């Protein structure tokens, strides 16, 4: 017996119509009919097929996990591998774009440093020559006056040479200090720009209390935090349908914190949406204003998109 026929028999045994199942699961009748007929190509994707079948099984009183395991050969293969490859291609393209944009700056950086050094050395030589010429000009009148009047001759002392050398050293140190300061400021600005990038959680699709979000982030670790002010039925699964949380979330055991750093997609199903709070790395998930009612069961899919530098 096929999995669709098994679900249909269980539904008819409970005298339930497809409309009754839709009211219980929020799954559209055309998808329910496709499941009963075994036509999974009409479903949005392989992940949705498993999620919808699980909801259908719970609604008609069947063990969802046992049913999925028994008829696993009939279910479509998940597209997780393709999604991983696609994300890797996107990341490699982003890396290429970043390197192409930043390469001209880094290629000019050595030239800029050399030019600054040359200007600094030329400035030091200019100061040294100017200082020597000024000293010679001051000594010339004294020498002429000595020859004419016979007064004492003014000779350039060792202290004057030491003073000139000290001025040259101080000028060189100032030039090096300015260069070091500019390099430190540039590195500080680059590190600050990477750290200031905030994660975003954007609603991309909403229909019949089913929402899809894109979470874009740069951190290596991602924490999912779910809390409630009252009590909510809560299910959390990964893209393979593996359960991460299944049960009633109450204020006494709130919040629930999960490490979802290695997941490509997260699925959540919960009731009483106005009393529940969902965060990813401190970014709050905002539900659509078009939810059918404050007590309607919500289904949420979150696509994880990490941005690499």
TrEMBL record:
Entries under Gene3D superfamilies matching the protein: lambda repressor-like DNA-binding domains
Composition bias type Polar residues, residue spans: 136-148
Sequence ranges assigned to domain HTH cro/C1-type in this UniProt record: 7-38
Pfam families in UniProt: HTH_25, RodZ_C
Keywords: Membrane, Transmembrane, Transmembrane helix
Transmembrane residue ranges: 105-129
UniProt-recorded Gene Ontology molecular function terms: DNA binding
Top-level taxonomic group: Bacteria
Bias (Acidic residues) ranges: 180-199
Annotated segments matching region Disordered: 136-202
SUPFAM superfamilies registered for this protein in UniProt: lambda repressor-like DNA-binding domains (SSF47413)
Signal peptide: none
PROSITE patterns in the record: HTH_CROC1
Protein name: Cytoskeletal protein RodZ
């Amino acid at each position: 017996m096929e999995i669709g026929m098994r679900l249909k028999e269980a539904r008819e045994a409970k005298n339930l119509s497809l409309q009754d199942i839709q009211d219980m699961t929020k799954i559209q009748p055309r998808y329910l009919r496709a499941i009963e007929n075994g036509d999974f190509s009409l479903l949005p994707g392989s992940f949705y097929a498993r999620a919808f079948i699980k909801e259908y099984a719970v609604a008609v009183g069947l063990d969802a996990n046992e049913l999925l395991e028994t008829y696993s050969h009939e279910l479509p293969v998940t597209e997780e591998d393709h999604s991983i490859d696609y994300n890797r291609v996107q990341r490699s393209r982003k890396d290429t774009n970043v390197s192409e944009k930043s390469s001209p700056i880094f290629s000019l950086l050595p030239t800029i440093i050399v030019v600054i050094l040359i200007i600094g050395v030329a400035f030091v030589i200019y100061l040294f020559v100017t200082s020597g010429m000024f000293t010679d000009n001051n000594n010339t009148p004294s020498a002429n006056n000595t020859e004419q009047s016979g007064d004492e001759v003014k000779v350039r002392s060792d202290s004057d040479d030491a003073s000139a050398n000290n001025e040259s050293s101080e000028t060189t140190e100032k030039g090096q200090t300015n260069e070091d300061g500019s390099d430190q400021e540039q590195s500080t600005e680059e590190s600050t720009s990477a750290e200031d990038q905030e994660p975003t959680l954007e609603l991309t699709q909403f229909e019949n209390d089913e929402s899809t979000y894109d979470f874009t982030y740069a951190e290596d670790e991602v924490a999912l935090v779910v809390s409630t002010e009252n009590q909510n039925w809560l299910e959390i699964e990964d893209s393979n349908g593996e359960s991460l949380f299944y049960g009633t979330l109450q204020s006494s055991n709130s919040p629930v914190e999960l490490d979802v750093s290695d997941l490509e997609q997260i699925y959540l199903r919960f009731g009483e949406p106005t009393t529940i709070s969902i965060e990813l790395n401190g970014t709050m998930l905002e539900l659509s204003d078009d939810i059918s009612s404050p007590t309607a069961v919500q289904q949420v899919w979150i696509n994880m998109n990490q941005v690499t530098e």
